[in-house]
Amino acid sequence: xxxxxxxxxxxxxxxxxxxxxxxxxxxxxxxxxxxxxxxxxxxxxxxxxxxxxxxxxxxxxxxxxxxxxxxxxxxxxxxxxxxxxxxxxxxxxxxxxxxxxxxxxxxxxxxxxxxxxxxxxxxxxxxxxxxxxxxxxxxxxxxxxxxxxxxxxxxxxxxxxxxxxxxxxxxxxxxxxxxxxxxxxxxxxxxxxxxxxxxxxxxxxxxxxxxxxxxxxxxxxxxxxxxxxxxxxxxxxxxxxxxxxxxxxxxxxxxxxxxxxxxxxxxxxxxxxxxxxxxxxxxxxxxxxxxxxxxxxxxxxxxxxxxxxxxxxxxxxxxxxxxxxxxxxxxxxxxxxxxxxxxxxxxxxxxxxxxxxxxxxxxxxxxxxxxxxxxxxxxxxxxxxxxxxxxxxxxxxxxxxxxxxxxxxxxxxxxxxxxxxxxxxxxxxxxxxxxxxxxxxxxxxxxxxxxxxxxxxxxxxxxxxxxxxxxxxxxxxxxxxxxxxxxxxxxxxxxxxxxxxxxxxxxxxxxxxxxxxxxxxxxxxxxxxxxxxxxxxxxxxxxxxxxxxxxxxxxxxxxxxxxxxxxxxxxxxxxxxxxxxxxxxxxxxxxxxxxxxxxxxxxxxxxxxxxxxxxxxxxxxxxxxxxxxxxxxx
Length: 634
Fold this sequence. Notes:
By secondary structure, the chain is of the alpha+beta class. The chain has 5 domains: 166 residues, 3-Layer(aba) Sandwich (Rossmann fold); 84 residues, Translation factors (Elongation Factor Tu (Ef-tu), domain 3, Beta Barrel); 103 residues, Translation factors (Elongation Factor Tu (Ef-tu), domain 3), CATH 2.40.30.10; 145 residues, no CATH class; 109 residues, Orthogonal Bundle (Arc Repressor Mutant, subunit A), CATH 1.10.10. The chain contains 21 helices and 32 strands. A 6-stranded mixed β-sheet has the order 2-3-1-4-5-6, sandwiched between helices. Strands 7-8-14-11-10-15 form a 6-stranded antiparallel β-barrel. Helix 20 crosses helix 21. It is elongated and about 130 Å long. 40% of the residues are buried. Keywords: Cytoplasm, Elongation factor, GTP-binding, Nucleotide-binding, Protein biosynthesis.
């Protein structure tokens, strides 16, 4: 499959962009009758050709008039390469500056400059070149090649085609295995086929039969890809960089708009609040707060909260699929110029609720690397699943290359100091609880998780509720709460914390290895019961005897779990060896025997013998024959 590239034009109105595209491709990019009638490009146009090298080019022709800057940004936004057009007979003009600023704001670093209409002003070519070099100084296209042509006479077209080959040869190769984000620039209906959307595919691969997520102004649903076209030809697969038409199943075209997006399902964060850095244009603390944000083909009203001249929080009127390192163009209301260019630094920014948070956030963002800060993201949360950071658009290194103080724990990336605090808090909780309640089998895993989710702030907010906690629980105030996550993942993280605390989780209880529940003050009472049963194993103590010894249900349950006593039905307490002692006596009776005979042989009461015999039946040591007779199972 040949390499494909998408190139968007840019430049002032009536400088020959559409004529140039027509000369290169043999296709008329203007689609509307009004455009052809007026000789003015109003909306995006599309054309394609094949270079001598075999590389395929798709052109997105944008309008140059200041009234249609939004349409221009929709065409230029997703494009990886720009073709900047300046007419020799007119030179640099107002919209040339606006389009240059847009290219700068979008971070497009690959492109070329074409000086057109050379046949109309051959003496002005060198002057125009000098203007271009001066105006592009300090921008991504500063070193871009400049080609002089006349689209009407053909002058310079062979050289331009050669330069296009050179520019595309050095372009960064697209990622075919990445996630798809196709910004929609057109949506329409084709009779017999249904709804079709078009856009520039810059990453990932689309295949007929795929299921994709459709997110937009009025739509949020999963849709199927019924068919694909690229360069006006039907195909089963489209790879970047390419213009693509996608035939969607069961969705009306009227529900779709420019600025909607087709996405790899579940792989993109859909956000309306982001933290950004200014890359060019007006300072962000200039007092303008209501702006229009252009991202991909979308144009969304936004509110700006400036932290300083270069960093701010941007709140969009509707959520969009965004990632770290995305580029955004801002326009002020009523203005046809670029206000500022932004770089997205954080798509999951922290809440700002305390005095001074804005200034602190400005300092943090000033230190933020362009492609994201793994350490900062992990440290801020304490722990975060690797897949979450990948969705944010961060490049997460393997374990050996992780930053200092970040370690991998299963599916989690964990801040080492925070992990240590969770481990110490868990030790403290379990130690304190077992000291306060020595009869406990441990601390419930759920209680440990809840304790780790408390912070000093949450304790203050809970007020009186905190006062009801036990002293041990009240001390558990880790600096950061245990994060939320998928059930299996959070359990794995909690198990690692428990393990590093030198503890174990058994039957839902966290405890030290080998921990046996103590009896504390009940020890003397259980010891007295053991002494009495040793003297007469079938003389089970009465309820009043147990109360006098301070033995309630909890104490008896702990003693039974520790193997000190055996509880039968109806509150009967015997020694653990009593059933075996009873069997030796019952085996000496004539078989079968009655309940009365068993009671007499054991020297006990019906209160004791009936639950004891039922216990023996349950263990399969005796068998009940009828309402009055049993026998020992040999």
